[in-house]
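Input/output pair, single chain:
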Amino acid sequence: MDPIRRCVQQLARLPGIGEKTAWRLTWWLLRADDELVTELSEAIGGLKEGVVECGTCCTIASSSPCSTCSDTRRDPALICVVERPQDVVAIEGSGDFRGFFHVLHGSLSPLDGIGPDQLRIRPLLARLDGVQEVILATDPDVEGDATALYLARVLKPLGLKVSRLAYGISVGTEIEYADRVSLMRALENRRPL
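Output:
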């Protein structure tokens, strides 16, 4: 197959990249410096083999435990539960959270066959010793709300303070796309469940 068309087809498989954008990127790559194209190719090629799931918080990182779980300056009494690894990056970007994280790798969605056993809930329950508050930072949508309510029912009997992000984040917005100020306000104005 023609290498230009092959590149376009592969780029068009990426989320948010249509055929026109794939063509534009392919033409840009053809004009780019050889060193840049090689570095990009090596970075993509090494991506899957260079990452692991953190054995503590379940995020995707270059090592286990990840750098966040290894940070001794963080507050061990506070865990923020998120749906996806990219949500950790977004909340960290707010600069306002100093606790630890736990990544569920999804949200409850019975119609899609995703129940509690498909999420990283057991590892969360196994790391609650010394934790005083769990912040449920799931997306403000039907699945995120269902997940937060389920977790609140599981966690409250354990004597933990359970809170949810305030709705400084617009309903329907995924956390990874929220702006810094909205995330900061959502964290500051979290509420008990």
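The beta strands are 52-53, 60-61, 78-82, 100-103, 133-136, 161-164, 191-192. The chain has two domains: 3-47, 53-192.
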